[in-house]
Amino acid sequence: MSSFFSELKRRNVVRVALLYGIVSWLILQVSDVAMPALGLPEWSITLVLYFLAIGLPIALIFAWAFELTPDGLKRTGEVDPDASVAPVTGQKINHLIIGVLSVALVFVVIDSYVLKDDGDPVENPTTAVAEQVEQSGRPGGQQVVDPSAAPILTSIAVLPFADMSPAQDQEYFTDGISEELLNLLAKIPDFKVAGRTSSFAFKGKDDDLRIIGEKLGVATILEGSVRKQKDQIRVTAQLVKVDDGYHLWSDTYDRQLDDVFAIQDEIATEVVGALKQTLLGDEDRVVIASARATDNTEAYTAYLRGKHMMQDRTADGLYKALREFRHATEVDPDFALAWTGVANSYSLLSSYSYRSADEVLPLASDAVDKAIELDPDLGEAWAARGLLLMQRGAPPEEQIAALEKAVALNPSDATAMMWMSSALTTVAEADEGQAILLRAYSIDPLNPTLLMNLATNEAFRGNAEATNRYAADLEGLRPDWDGTYRLKNTIASLEGQKDEELRWAKKALHYNPESPDTMMTIAHLYMDFGDRDRAREYASRAREVNPLHGDAIALQAELRFSEGDSQGAWALIDRTLQKQPNDPNLLGQAGGMALREGRPDEARAYYERILRPADGAWAMADFVGIFNAAELVALYREAGQPDLAEALRRQCDGLLDSLGAESTWFVPFLRARLAGAAGDRDAALVNLREAVDRNAAGGYLVENLPGFAEYSDDPEIGPLLDTMVARRDEFARRVAAEDL
Questions:
Q1: Is the model's pTM score more than 0.90?
Q2: Contact at 8 Å (CB) between 487 and 471?
Q3: Together in a domain, 627 and 674
Q4: Out of 157, 448, 579, 651, which could bridge 194 as a Cys pair, Cβ 3.0 to 4.6 Å?
Q5: Of 266, 241, 269, the residue nearest 254 (C-alpha)
Q6: Number of separate domains in the chain
Q7: Per-residue pLDDT tens for 469-513?
Q8: Are 275 and 285 in contact (CB under 8 A)?
Q9: 707-726 tens-digit pLDDT
């Protein structure tokens, strides 16, 4: 045996093996860095390893069987031992080994300190996070990420795991793994976790991870796959660094497929533990425990289907989602998340006017109470309560408190942040609301509803550049969604382009033919253009979807009233108010009709039911409230209560101030109406002139609403009002010419 090893050394087989091993290691390291940068698939590295493994025995056999001599390559058995130059060849191989080792050492240094450099070193990830965020001031520490800042290493997106099973029947399991990982990662304070809507936007796609990371604003991506064979299941997970494709961590889990949820919990917990150690360097830093939502596969699958169906906010989608969520609660009555789905489905059916608030909000209330009873620490349940309180017009502090609790319990809930932003805007905290909305955007940048809200906010604030940027992103993301064109309709409205308003509203209706709110947008435009027949047509269509649609009924009443059928108009309003006594559209129409019939006290009672004055303040649910507030300001003034008139005007001005609008006609026009109603002629003139300069147009706003009636003959105000009407007439001619 000793002679055999001696012969191995003499023939340089050992040196060749060592040299081959070092060269192979160096080739693998270079491939690991270069191949992702070249866009080559991950299996390319495996292929290189395969060829290197095949080459090793070939190299060893070649070293044993042949010798390099001064006369060329000869078989070892043909070389006279006394004439062998194997020792000289061995020295050359030694020099090669040293040279290759030196190259490998240089590569290790470059790879560790140059290629892997993520910026200036920081003592811990928390410091890096702190340097990239700005505190908004809300309790719970909401943070707004600077969009220009590079993603921190502890920012992560969990992509939907791929179903690699031959039967392609494990979607519920793959989605469940991804959901569980998202839920667990969201509990780690130092992790920024991309929202579910944005991460799941890449489901079934094969996009480059670098592009995905850029779109989601994260530095790392967790992806994986599930493969089921009979009663065995294999889950593979890997953590990839976005900027260079470097694999920070990967693992494979083989399990017996008996308890699906136990496997999901176990694997998710193990993966998160590994990620904590990889990214935070301290596996025990945060103790996490899986809070299994349900043990029932059927209930969980129904819940996942419901979440998917409710995303687009269509009537069909919301009704289907409601059926799925209710089925989940029937299968597992203790499934708190499914009860939140039931509550949100009912609330959103009201938000988008598919059903009246009085019909569905009591059902939403029962569902959210059940969810919180089952799990008082469920952030999604508190978010559902916050939305419900907003729908009911509860005091803003109650809305905000519920939503703040939701975000505190689930800091990655972008939807709860979006709803909180709306609640803050109603109490003249538009800047703070926008800050929270931007924080939500940093978490869930591919959420269409969130993008639409961001763009709408910026449009009201007069920030055209940001508005157009978000609108373009939304159209690129969802060119087939009605919300994309409802946003364009809003932008056109704020720019005073009424023909464009109508054009975009009709395109939105094309993508969602069952939207009563879009139908009513079109109806009001036709009403302003003087096309009463088409206005009546679209109001009727809205009521076909929702027979109790307050805005549609109010417009039908206005058509009857203005055509001389006062009795029929009042009958319609009174009959509907018995079913939904707090509808602001019905109350506003009733107030306007009472005012025109010379009954100011009755009109005042209707308007106060909308604004609900208490403790020297009025409830401003939205901008509909400010429109109605002008009527109430005028009524207070005429009743000899100038203090009340001025107090209400100041509150409305405060809400308008919070918008910070610089370029739209909307805000100065509302200010002009409020000033005119309060008898402040000079302020009415200044603001109306600004509104007209910004392209304000409209006849209905001028001819049928208080604020300017006493100034119609004013030598300065009168011509401005005439300009608005003339512009409206020009838009009406365009619409008629194009037969829009």
A1: no
A2: yes
A3: yes
A4: 157
A5: 266
A6: 4
A7: 999 999 999 999 999 999 999 999 989 999 999 999 999 999 999
A8: no
A9: 787 888 899 999 999 999 99
